[in-house]
Predict the structure.
Amino acid sequence: LSEYKAVDTGIGAEKVTHVSALNSLVYCQNTSDGFGAITFGSNGPSGVIAFTDTKSDEPSGKTLSISFMKDLLLVKREKKNFLYDKIGNEIASSTFDIVDYVSSYMLVKNNDNYLVYSLKGNILSEEGKYIKLYDNYFALVKKDNSLNIYTYKDAKKGILDVNIQIKGTDASAFEISEDEKNYIVKVNSNNYTFDKVTGNLVSGDNNEE
């Protein structure tokens, strides 16, 4: 590995007594300050994530960083960002910053706006001031600070019968949970309960100023 400026097996801060590199990814920084991943098989080392993308129809340039995002690898290149699995298969890509993903969907940031895309690259939502992804739905706060919940299958139509006004500067200003029958929206230190079927407000004061 003397040709690489730095290497990382991805083990992190765990105490290590032995490392076997066979068939596992090793993350490397080359002498040109590009990042990539290689694996060691029975035939020796081979590239998995390129230090520089030059072979695709629209080359995305040098790999600027590789980091974990949940169970996937977030790969940032000069012109595009990618999600890879841990064996180097490309899962998704975007010209915008990839902020989060859930199942088959990802959250991206374009300047100060957020959008939900499928991992296949299809845009699903309108732009939001901020968006938070959940397993079966996502919450979107519009520029007027109103919040609503949307399903991934029908991402243009809000579930809730009313919009809650958010007081805060980011997605930490609210939290959503659910039980068998209801969505529970916690915002501005208050709880609002909505019926899952009708979207009607069950409890909570939606007239807060």
User: Anything to note?
Assistant: The chain is about 0% helix and 50% strand.
